[in-house]
Amino acid sequence: MRPFTFERVRTPAEAAAAAARHPGAKFVAGRTNLLDLMKLEIETPTHLIDVNGLALDKIEPTADGGLRIGALVRNTDLAADERVRRDYGVLSRALSAGASGQLRNMATTAGNLLQRTRCPYFYDTNQPCNKRVLGSGCGAIDGFSRQHAVVGISDACIATHPSDMAVALRVLDAVVETVGPDGSTRNIPIAEFHRLPGDQPHIDTVLRTGELITAVTLPKPAGGAQIYYKVRDRASYAFALVSVALVVQKDGTGRVALGGVAHKPWRVEAAEAELPKGAKAVAAFLLADAKPTDQNAFKLKLVERTLAAALAQAKGAQL
Amino acid sequence: MKFETPATENPIDQLKVIGKATDRVEGPFKTMGRARYAYEWHDVAKNPAYGYVVGSAIAKGRIRSIDLSLAKVSHGVLAIVTAENAGKLGKGEFNTALLLGGPEIQHYHQAVALVVAETFEQARAAAGQIRIEYEKAPGAFDLAAAKDSAPMADKITGGVAASKVGDFEGAFAAAPVQLDATYTTPDQSHAMMEPHSSLAKWEGDKLTVWTSNQMIDWGRGDLAKTLNIPKENVRLISPYIGGGFGGKLFVRADAVLASLGARAAQRPVKVALQRALMPNNTTHRPATIQRIRLGTTREGKITAIGHDSWSGDLPEGKPDGAVHQTRLLYAGENRMTATRLAVLDLPEANAMRAPGEATGMMALEIAMDELAEKLGIDPVELRILNDTQVVPDDASPPSKDDPQDRKGDTAANQAGKGKRFSQRQFIECLRLGAERFGWNKRSAKPAANRDGMWLIGQGVAAAYRGNQTTKSAARVRLDSRGGVIVETDMTDIGTGSYTVIAQTAAEMLGVPLNRVLVRLGDSSFPVSSGSGGQWGANCSTSGVYAACLKLREMVAQKLGVSATDAVFSDGRVRVGDRDVPLGEVAGSAGLVAEDAIEFGKLAKEYQQSTFGAHFVEVGVHVATGETRVRRMLAVCAAGRILNPKAARSQVIGAMTMGVGAALMEELAVDKRLGFFVNHDMATYEVPVHADIPHQDVIFLDETDPISSPMKAKGVAELGICGVAAAVANAIYNATGVRVRDYPITLDKLLDGLPDVA
Asked: Are B29 and B47 part of one and the same domain?
């Protein structure tokens, strides 16, 4: 761990000002990911701005019938919120499928969106990784790639985004609200929030330097059956091989997003027109441009089959 | 005492304390945080500094240069140890690679430096400031690629590398029913809770190391050898150990580097190996490729049984003994086993829970399931049909320079053709297990049962593990208040050693359990068997038995009577009309007896083994291929069960580890870069609670007077042997998909599952 300075802020304006003063700064809240990465010198911020005092820990209704989730709402609290459980079941289920109880108690809504990939080459500082050190190469592409991305990849990076919550937010059309170091605010649709790796895999999101997430808003409830189906190698406490966030209406229309397959929650809205035709058609559309490795090619079939399971579950039917 | 003839009735047979399900005596210390582990002795070794280990960034090659200049001036740094400044070091007898590498690098994450600082954080920060330039050399990292050129190994644990009986090739070729299949098992990591940890303190040229080690005397010798100091100048203290599974059989880098760091910093230094270093820095269970050939009559009698195994290790390393049980478990006139060892530049391969049988049974017991299907015979019945009450393969005596047989008197597993088993209730385990599990409800036809989205199947496998016996000594003190103190360098790696030893002394001396204090894991105590190879409970309690027998004689002598006439009960000794409190006999000086159990020819005249049967039910998700174990049953025949509660805990732990081996555990090899990629607990997956269903364990009521005066055997490794195959067979029964490459992850099932999309 490199030496760093640390300060606590009380208001978003203070946070923005602090970020403006310290170009190498990082915000910290739940400390479930950034500190681990700092210990390994994967992240080396020179200044930490603790935003836990920002009073952004409320879940409030919005004027258009949705919910505004404060950036500091802990994953456990969000998953347990009655409104979330009733109206946004896919989100509650996705949250509960992630990490462990202890981590969910600490992890925040904004931090969950900003967690870094769990690629083992990213974590091992002896190994090449373009996400950690741009230009050093990718260890995973010709290495151990079983967990890695199959769509939206580049020659520089095949890392996945590890969040379950973000996949549910993607299918719910959430919006990320931010404040910049100059005090300006903006709303970023979740679809645009996470980036594909391209030739700059070291940049995960479209957040600008010093820009702080203040809330995530959900539009009014989507209704329908809401399923989050996460597939992994053990029953708990593991990242998804593949996950499916599904909202499906009585008439068979719906939305679907995937986790574990890309550098961001993977949703192709045009694919959703295929939902009434079944999982095979939707999966084929979603994964049309997939370029898997030998080790993770199984994910293509797994997506199709997991989606089939999720669709059956939504109908209360069996396969 | 020498144990040369089968045990007759003795005080243990009273079973007032032994054989009773007993809570572990050190449990309260552990729950209250008062059981100190290696890293926690700072009030004894005051003001310790912290060491942080730097592992090699390459798998093979040389260090061209190390630049310590920045690290040396980093905050709080007291010393930095490297091969350059450590002085001349030896290599432990039990180590294959050096524990401090440089300039030559033998494997990834081989320790190349220890940074010692005032705080852990300072040591870690300074470690990040060390600049090392490496010169990579090409290495061999792919077992499958090295397989065909791998030479025959010299030996395996407990025997020769290869064996032949009759005419295997001819009999196999002539057999009307044949099975010829190849199986693979991956590299596995022990992944115990407590990392390898040591706290070292020098007083002049005397070194004390509080450590976490299964084999105190081996460790003491090898630490001395590595540091080039006399063994008598080294004291190891290891009373509590947070799991070992074979990963702590030997001195590792933490102990050596803490010692060197303490010398350099002139302060006590403690080192806990960082979790991310453990899989590559320490030992692991090596991957195997195993070919099994079985030839039978049409009725299912095995006429030819062959087992070839390949594994890899560093130069001068050791093979996995996967063929071992194939010499002993099933009948058959014509037999062969062969063990080949490839040179690989991956980290050091070595023992992990039930080395040999754990991997061997993973393959052999799928093969038996496949054979049963070919024959149209129930897999339980096939095993019963091929039971043998005599040793079918004449494997030669164990090699004396094999670590697990190092102590000249260990007479482990070596067989002679026609030799009898001391006890063999294999059939009884299978029959009882089948009855309790409801085996007769299983469909012989695969993919025939469903529960909602889950395909349901049941599987069975044999359990087999050798019972090894080795010398073990203990000292027993009786004080004037009738209290008993037992001292031995035996270790408790979570197994229950404290408890079974206390039970033994209580039974032998007729005192309540709470009057016995057991002290373990200190090299100043008599040398015990240590913990490994499932020999610990039987051997160490037998050593305590011997010391207690001597103490009984001393008591009798003091009373002027014969020990055989004295009755030890309720803290008193009675002879005829005399009834004296034990403490009174001991007097103010107390009485001290020390003795060892030494095992003699019985271990050579009989094959001593433990047997069992594992039954497993799984559900496999029809769409995703996720496997969930639904229930498990183990039936074990392992001699007298000294403490059914502790033994059950050992077996359910082993069954859990077997589920890990079946479904998820695999050190992923990067065959280009030469290292285990998933080297932390997030990526090397072991079962979590949600993976493990209700587990039943049944112990047959058995005593084995050939094994020891305790009439007990080991059980902790028996519990893992066969489990993974039972899971694999259950998955086959559920799905009709036969997977021969462990772990059985869902990607290996998907192509064979019904169409659902």
From this structure: no
pLDDT digits (tens, 9 = 90+) for A171-193: 999 999 999 989 999 999 999 99
CATH number for the domain that contains residue B66:
3.30.365.10
Q: Across the interface, do A278 and B757 touch by the CB < 8 Å criterion?
A: yes
Tokens at residue B707, please?
A: 């094994």
Cite the beta strand spans of B98-160 per DSSP E: 104-105, 111-117, 131-136, 155-156, 159-160
- Whether residue B55 contacts residue B97, with contact meaning beta carbons closer than 8 Å, is answered with no
d(CA B653, CA B480): 41
Averaged over B510-538, what is the pLDDT?
98
Decide if B717 is catalytic: yes
Q: Do residues A154 and A199 touch, judged by C-beta distance below 8 A?
A: yes
> What is the residue whose two structure tokens read 């449990």?
B27
Beta bridge partners of B587: none
B67, part of any domain: yes
Interface test with B, best of A233, A277, A313 (most B CBs within 10 A): A233
Chain A contact present for B205, CB below 8 A? no
Q: Which residues contact B459 (CB under 8 A, 6 or more apart)?
A: B369, B615, B616, B617, B618, B725, B726, B727, B728, B729, B730, B731, B732, B733
Closest among B336, B319, B318 to B327, alpha carbons compared = B336
Integer Cα distance of B413 and B160 in angstroms? 11
Q: How many domains does chain B have?
A: 3
Separation in Å, CA of A298 to nearest CA in chain B? 6
Pair of tokens at residue A218? 């959900």
How do residues B384-398 score in pLDDT, each as one tens digit? Answer: 999 999 999 966 444
Residue ranges of chain A whose pLDDT lies below 50:
none
Q: Find the radius of gyration of the CA atoms of chain B.
A: 26
Domain extent, residue B582, equals 2-35+469-604
Please check whether residue B305 lies inside any domain of the structure: no
Query: If you search the block for the tokens 């904004």, which residue do you land on?
Result: A110
The pLDDT score that the predictor gives to residue B405 is 45
* CB-based contact, A119 to chain B, within 8 Å: no
Q: Is residue B368 part of a domain?
A: no
* Mean pLDDT on B600-612: 93
**Residues B98 and B221 placed together within one structural domain of the fold:** yes
Nearest-neighbour CA in chain B from A118: distance (Å): 9
Name the residue among A41, A139, A308 with its Cβ closest to that of B128. Answer: A41
Residue B9, both tokens: 């009735």
β-bridge pairing A175-179 and B269-272: unpaired
Looking at the fold, whether B591 and B671 belong to one and the same domain comes out as: no
CA dist A9 and A106 (Å) reads: 19
- Same structural domain, B477 and B576: yes
Of B215, B250, B281, the position where a domain reaches its end is B281
**Which of B330-344, B406-420, B723-737 shows the lowest mean pLDDT across its residues?**
B406-420
Residue B411 has what pLDDT? 40
How many residues comprise chain B?
757
Inside any domain, residue B713 = yes
In the chain, the amino acid numbered B689 is: H
Which tokens in the block code for residue A197?
């790796």
B516 and B629 both lie in a single domain: no
Task: Specify the pTM.
Answer: 0.97
Position B545 scores a pLDDT of 98
Asked if the model's pLDDT at residue B410 lies above 60, the reply is no
- The complex scores an ipTM of 0.97
- Compute the nearest-CA separation of B670 from chain A (Å): 6
User: Is A76's Cβ below 8 Å from some Cβ in B?
Assistant: no
Q: Do A305 and B756 touch (CB under 8 A)?
A: yes
Same domain for B259 and B121, yes or no, is yes
Question: Which structure tokens are listed for A143?
Answer: 């290495």
Residue B12 has pLDDT above 70, yes or no: yes
Q: In chain B, what percentage of residues exceed pLDDT 70? A: 97
Claim to verify: residue B613 and residue B732 sit in the same structural domain? yes
* Chain segment B273-315, per-residue pLDDT in tens: 999 999 999 999 999 999 999 999 999 999 999 999 999 999 9
